[in-house]
Amino acid sequence: KTSKRRDGPPLPPGPPPLPIVGNVRGFDIDAPWVTYTKWAAAYGDLVYTHFFQQEIIVISSEKVAKDLLERRSHIYSDRPELPANKVIGMDFNSVLARYGPGWRFHRRLFHQAFKEDSSISFRPMQLRKAHQFLRGIMESQSPEDYAACIRLHSSSIIMAAVYDYEASPRDDPFVTVIEKAIEIAITDLRPQVSAVFSAFPILLCLPSWFPGMGLKKRGAVMQKYMNKWLDEPFQYVKEKMSTGTTAPCMVSDALEKWQNEDGEVVKAIQEVAATAFIAAAETTASTMSVFLLAMVLYPEVQERAQALIDSVVGTGRLPNFEDRPSMPYIDAILRETLRWHPIAPMGVPHATYSEDVYEGYYIPKGMHIELPMILPNVWAMARNEEKYPNPDEFIPERFLTADGNLNDDTCNFAFGFGRRICVGRHLADASVWSAMALMLAAFKVTKSKDEDGNDIDFEPEWFGGLATHPLPFPCSITPRLEGMNMERLNALIEASA
Ligand code: HEM
To answer: ipTM of the predicted structure?
Structure first.
């Protein structure tokens, strides 16, 4: 069933569907963005598809994304219902909240904590976390250890910013719970998985022991995790507040500001806080893993960055945020990291609030309870060969002007569009910049060597889902500076404070 109308403008073009199942032919379920990019080449920047009953409209150019998701954001800022979201107990999640007063209040709470000028207050903490990150790398022995350091860096920043909580390096009781839950969620919240539940809502009523009901089984575990996650870190802040020992953080600031309000407001604060980790930890860590991969594969980029850092900062201290304007190449690397392998290659689905007509095509509101999804194909935008020649190559220079300054392309599409644009992007930007700059200053990343001293080549493998990241790959991270050990690293960190 589709929204095709007998008269009026046609739906956007798209591949011919099969009866009932829709556009499953040739669909790569692990990397849908690749299929959608092929369809964009064949049918244009606005493609209509459907998967069972779920209509999916894919936008594959920045121009159309801006025309619709930004200029007509009053129509395009809703989210589709993802039934799996409820099953796994994540329906509090602001990222997927339907457009309306509830979402608006969540967004306001986020904005207060993470808008550009508020985010600046987190910088000393972010630098401290980047220093801890370096210490972790210094002790690491394997690609799995490096991945764990990256995860700890991003999760401990968001725990500090939201709850003023110092996450412990291993087996942190809060972080372990939520990390497990996220791993399940990003697989189960894929639009295609969700479409199956939209098509056959009866599946959601079957008992969890029923064959094939893996999602429901996981859902029961997840709901338990989620209740703990909503409550326990929040109670931690409240206890600290009652003894007057909290440093400013999102939860304590919000509770103070809204202290005379009712339980609904407190519940919203709790939900926003619980969402923050889900939105921040995986995304920031995935971006850092893409950076690490790029540094292994493009040693010349790394060397250029290190020469720049040495010339601006020297080797007697580590970089800090004041050095940032003098090191445009590091920002160019950050932008190229966002572009080269966007960690949310299909963004987060938007949905239409009402029907629309764009360039002669009809954009439906949907004929059934599930709204059509509007997917920004960030992957296709990042692979736009006119804007980014040789798009598969990691070339930070594409973000520099002829005189070596940054150009105007901030690669913002990696953070989404319009009223739903990532509200944590300023925090993310500073977390990633500081970790990248400090890591480049202190360490050299190379391919691992085999027993004969030859480089071990590898084909990167990617974890797929709503968000993607490279799986650990063979590499070796060693100190750049002569005679560096933990004691000297600590001295360097102290000299930088
Ligand atoms: C490099 C790291 C990050 C990337 C690439 C990223 C990317 C995105 C994207 C693509 C969206 C969807 C935007 C849209 O619907 O058009 C989004 C939404 C969101 N992000 Fe981020 N994000 C990152 C880090 C963070 C951090 C650190 C936070 C911290 C609070 C955060 C909080 C959110 C929230 C709350 C939303 C939902 C906004 C809404 O629906 O109104 N993100 N992000």
So the answer is: 0.99
